[in-house]
Amino acid sequence: MDFFALTQPGIGPVLRREAESLPLRDLSVDADVGFDGRADVVAFCGRTGPALLGLRTAEAVLVQVGTSGPGAAAKVAATMWEPRRAANALSVFAGLGGALRPRMGFRVAVRVLSETNFRRTDLRRAVAQVVGSTYPRWGLEDPAALELWVVESSPGRFRLGLRLDKLSRTGPARDLERVGALRPSVAAAMVLLAGRPKGWMLDAFCGSGTILAAGADAEWEIAGCDLDPAALLAAAGNLGPRPRLLRADALKLPLAGGRFSAAVSNLPFGKRFPLPPNPGRWFGGVMEELCRVTVPGAKIVLLGPRGRGLEAAVAQSRRVEELERFDVTVLGEPARIFVLGPGLRR
User: Fold this and answer.
1) What is the pLDDT confidence band of residue 274, given thresholds at 50, 70 and 90?
2) pTM
3) Of 62, 204, 218, 281, which residue is least crowded by CB atoms under 10 Å?
4) How far is the C-alpha of 84 from the C-alpha of 187, rounded, in Å?
5) Dihedrals phi, psi of 202, to nearest 5 degrees
């Protein structure tokens, strides 16, 4: 069977990495990461579906019904919808616990890169018509048990899939939200980039605890700091008794040196939470403190704004070396994830 998953812009390569790490002999992962205008698209092929629902860096997981090249809306819909493949996709849905009945409600979501050849609404209507021709007792509903998604993953390349992930989500839920909270899929990607769990992971800007939750889910021991008492209260409500939480300034952490095996943080962007007058120097000071509290060889994973001093601070630091970077979009803002390792002088 063919599958595909959607994730936040820029996280696709990390989703590929997570999928490739699954202990599945028959799973092959497409080398190319697509983009549908709102999300990265990663395709898979294999005989298994349940394991894909455990992908923490995915926002949605779908079993693929069909694909199509360019053309008019009716042609694209008819090419993607093949009754036998649709029946196979429905069997995967049912096998994961989805209820199938003679009368079903379904929803069609469409994302296209361009409306030059047809409007998005035209393709949605055409897909609904071909589905109705096979299952005349089905009807459009919103919300619906069955969600059919069409994404144009590259120019003129369309995929139709049946969404599966709502049947079983393994990621942690946030009971208490805060303005600017990170998407769980991005937090999971950052934790994955920190490497295999091997002790304690620190988030020095923990907010409502999204990164800490992802760390605990990946089997790290977790500890978090924040200057805002409301943030710590939200984190405690979301995480329960598991983490150690401290009110602390990230430039002066009340923590012993060399204690943590990884540090993973979403830094302030200067929008909802202001940056100091010299953000580059401040970012550099934060990295110095994170180097102090982590063990030699630890990875430090930081998400921050593009072009506001973080990149210069990374380049100028002799305590850290840039191992990887990922350009992402967070809450509509251009951002960058840095994966840092020990530099010339730890």
Assistant:
1) confident
2) 0.92
3) 281
4) 38
5) -110, 135
